[in-house]
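Summary of Year 1 activities. Much of the first year was spent building the evaluation harness for sequence design. The harness presents a backbone, in tokenized form, and records the residue chosen at every position. We chose the following record to illustrate the format because it has been used consistently in internal testing since the harness was completed.
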């Protein structure tokens, strides 16, 4: 024992515990996360109460406790299942269109949004919000839940900034 009452073994154990705690917090904040889904907006691909593994480094380095990236090295691509912050909640949606991608919005015979070969139904309110948009603005993407009827998504709150993306879903 030394003069402050801790042996060398005790100091080593404390150091290992602190280093492990620091590494765990670092990994959770910046590298990898496990999330639990609450809601039906991504069904059938992702079920309510599912557990997701998320790669937080897929698109860049996130700024902790924020909805922005410090550094971005990739952008979401169509069909990526991504997470981002919206109204201080983590949201899981599918990226259906990226910057510059053309959008076709129609009211005949039903309200629809056509992106590539996908026809996505719209409510009248969603149609009015998106009406006049011919493409996705630079620096943004269109994120929509797979369960069109139960999803609150870009059709309701608009395009999502690429800077707000927190990660890519690895497995479900």
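For this record, the design step produced the sequence shown next.
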């Amino acid at each position: 024992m030394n003069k402050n009452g801790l042996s060398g073994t005790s100091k080593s154990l404390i150091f290992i515990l602190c280093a492990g705690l620091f590494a765990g917090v670092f990994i959770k904040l910046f590298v990898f996360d496990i999330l639990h889904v609450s809601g039906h907006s991504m069904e059938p691909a992702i079920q309510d109460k599912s557990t997701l593994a998320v790669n937080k480094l897929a698109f860049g380095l996130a700024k902790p406790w924020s909805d922005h990236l410090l550094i971005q090295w990739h952008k979401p691509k169509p069909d990526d299942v991504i997470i981002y912050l919206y109204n201080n909640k983590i949201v899981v949606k599918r990226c259906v269109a990226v910057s510059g991608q053309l959008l076709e919005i129609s009211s005949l015979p039903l309200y629809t949004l056509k992106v590539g070969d996908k026809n996505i139904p719209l409510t009248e309110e969603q149609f009015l919000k998106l009406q006049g948009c011919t493409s996705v603005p630079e620096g943004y993407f269109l994120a929509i839940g797979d369960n069109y009827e139960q999803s609150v998504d870009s059709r309701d709150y608009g395009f999502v900034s690429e800077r707000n993306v927190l990660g890519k879903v690895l497995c479900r």
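The first helix runs from residue 8 to 31. Quantitative recovery figures across the full test set are reported in Table 2.
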